[in-house]
Amino acid sequence: MLMRKSLTLAVVALLLDINGCSRDKTGAITYKYLRQISGANAKDCGYVRFGESTAQTDQCVMDAYKRHQPFIARYDVKGLDSRLVLGLAGDGTEKIVSVKYDSEGWERPSRTGASLVEGNHVLLTPCPVPVQFSKEQSGHLACYQ
After folding, report:
1. What is the structure's pLDDT at 31?
2. Cα(first)–Cα(last) distance of the chain, in Å?
């Protein structure tokens, strides 16, 4: 009985570790593309976990954009059957790119100028210029309607 309990605990710990590594990988992939777009010295406006308020991060993004400062921001979003991390990256000019990671992958780009990378798991979409920020239904800041 003790051996079975120890084995069960070991399996649970392994699953938790695997899931944790998966989350870290997701964040790292998203972060990599945000930094490539914005540059190494960009202001990190924050990483909003699912269910948290986006107000501070959203304001930081809009302020950085108005001041022509490079920035990044990330948002966890609840997916139907997958893990989603959405981000915005600005390079200090008019250029802002939406970066969307989906653990299940994307079928095809839905907007003109968009591209898929990382085995179709990351969707890169340039924001239209002039940029007009809006709130998505999930609550995160977006740059297109």
Report:
1. 93
2. 58
